[in-house]
Description:
The protein is mostly helical. The protein has 7 helices and 4 strands.
Amino acid sequence: xxxxxxxxxxxxxxxxxxxxxxxxxxxxxxxxxxxxxxxxxxxxxxxxxxxxxxxxxxxxxxxxxxxxxxxxxxxxxxxxxxxxxxxxxxxxxxxxxxxxxxxxxxxxxxxxxxxxxxxxxxxxxxxxxxxxxxxxxxxxxxxxxxxxxxxx
Length: 152
């Protein structure tokens, strides 16, 4: 949906850096890879912000990396937590797990979708970050996302 939102708002967007990074690996990702992914995500956001037309749409952010690191490896590097504390996103779109699971080689734990949804929500609330829950089918999600962004 991030790409479609960027097109709708005629602005740039930041893809999920992890996707391209993991695609090029010839092995399963490891804990140290998450730090490289986090750095790549930060850099991609800085680059795309230069081209943004009033708003920048980001497919993901460091909160996702933090949660995955804690889940898979039991901890998250302090510098990632520090970067999250300094983040200045105006809005997070928290997508609910009410659409069918879509198989993808990089997606893990289809049985834990609700678990991770609750983790993301709890993390956003912990950091007191503005978020809107996005539910419904694809069309409803897009409409709700546009409404939430326009409300800013």
